[in-house]
Amino acid sequence: MKTSLQSSSLKSSQFIVLWLPDWTFNLGDWPLSIAVIDTAPVQPSIVVLCKRVLLCFTHGGTLRFSIRLQCIATALLVYNSTSDAYIQLCIATTTNTLLFYTDNILIWAAQLAVEPMQLNLCSFGTIYRSMIAILSERRLSVSYLGTEPSLFRLPASQTRFIDFHERQAEFMRLESAIRKKPSDAVSGVANHSALQFECTFTGLDEKSMAHDVSEEVPSLTVDVSITSRLQLNDVRLLCRTQFFAEQKYFVIGNIRDSYHLPITFYVKTQPITDLRCQFLLFSASNGELSSAEIKLPLILMCRATGTQRNVQYKLTFESSETALEVGDLMPEFEAEKSTSIAFQPVLSDSVVSIFVSPKSKRYRIQSDSLDELYVFAEELISRVKSKQPEVSLSCHVPLDHILQRLHIYLELERKRVSEESELERACIQLRGAQAAILAKLRAPRPASGSHIDALMQYSHAQLLASIDRVSRTEVALRSAASSLSAAFNLLQFLMLLNGKQFPINGYIVDCSGQTLSERLKWILSTMTRVDVNADLPSNELRSLIRNQCERCAPPMENIDEESDTESEPELESDQMINPFVSGSLPFARNSE
């Protein structure tokens, strides 16, 4: 673009900026999206998507090609996945179709169940460059692009003999492979992501970097080292942790080969109930994504103190090997005895005591606060397993206390919904009083407005009272959310320690616009028969979670259970029927 400045008049001495374009083009249709690609060896181009046409220009304004669409387009994605000079693009349409083009040649068409609204690429670890789409039904879809199908001929019919027993065994092998975790299914496959990073730290800072805190607290600096095989200009780093940091969202302007970013953490606003720190690194332009999780040291959030015996919550861990001494497990803290130690978290009045019994092979963690038990239980067990890799540990789950935390949160959540509706009613009433006052002021004849003034004062008082109630409920809900998050983390940790999987942890409380009851109903619907649209009370949700935990309970040891049913006689060979085993592979019928 060329610019020029011209003076308007000598008296005003003001300047008018005139933008003189190098070139213009009449699109002839309503534009929806624009993309620019300048990655070698592709010729620098400008791609403009309109409702029924796609236009591609050079940087000088020359039209390279155009694509006339038979339906209305909704989104455009321009990407580069090969080393040739073709422009590769994907167009989403209102007919729930994705059209893949190489320049102006259609190479693939994919049908979706819902209309896509926005498209992008993403990479999750070893899963490289998946298609992510925002659908019109408020859903997010992540799909693997797959291979190019045969578009212009029917598949050849199979005339060979099929061994159904062999085919059934093959299906069972495929089904078992599908059930594996993604990390197990792609074992041995190298990570193709061009954006990688590593988080390291050596120890606490010699001089604490904490400031504006009520007491002296230590600090820790984590060095984030980012490496990229491509030159990226729009890299973003997200950090998620309970520790305080001056900045948890970073925008990195330019990365050529490597980039180092120091981040300092310390306790400032709240007591810590989780030592984990998650990092998410991504590039918005090409969909590269990488994530990592580290655990910050325990000494960063607590200090040693005297033990307490009479407390409310206790966890006893049974060990298969001799219990280790406190000095071997917690060398960075000074303990008064070799069998006991206590900690006080920063910004908290609660004390967590740990007792070791070498003779009975037991560890016990106790405190007056259930919120602090998960941090110290997870840290203690991880250190025990690092010293004794073959050890087997088990612990009783305090399910009643955890479900009580859930009940408190759900009741506060329902109370907030009710108070927000009351606040909305008070706002409508106040706006009605304001409208009545405006109508009175516009009247040609003055009239008495004492009744309207009284209504205005009453509505204003009702609105302030509703705002105060909602604010108090929000404060109580945040406190209950922190307590419930620690309780769910403890529940998942103890269930995993006992050898059973439980799919709910503390992250279910955070980072969602849905209510907790909606998320719990969806998770429970995948494990049992639960109507997602039903309004379940908190008692029923607690009962469902209790049933799942009891179903996942470990088997009783040293007890041989015998079946009460007698074995049925075997059928004759000519009467035996080998039924088909129903698989769990989902399918969808294409709508014609």
UniProtKB/TrEMBL annotation:
Compositionally biased tracts (Acidic residues): 558-573
GO cellular component assignments: BBSome; membrane
Coiled-coil annotated spans: none
Classification via InterPro entries: PHTB1_N_dom, PTHB1, PTHB1_hp_dom, PTHB1_pf_dom
Domain PTHB1 N-terminal: 20-149
Biological-process GO terms, alphabetical: cilium assembly
Ranges of residues in domain PTHB1 platform: 297-388
Residues in PTHB1 hairpin domain copies: 397-497
Region (Disordered): 554-592
Annotated protein name in UniProt: PTHB1 C-terminal domain-containing protein
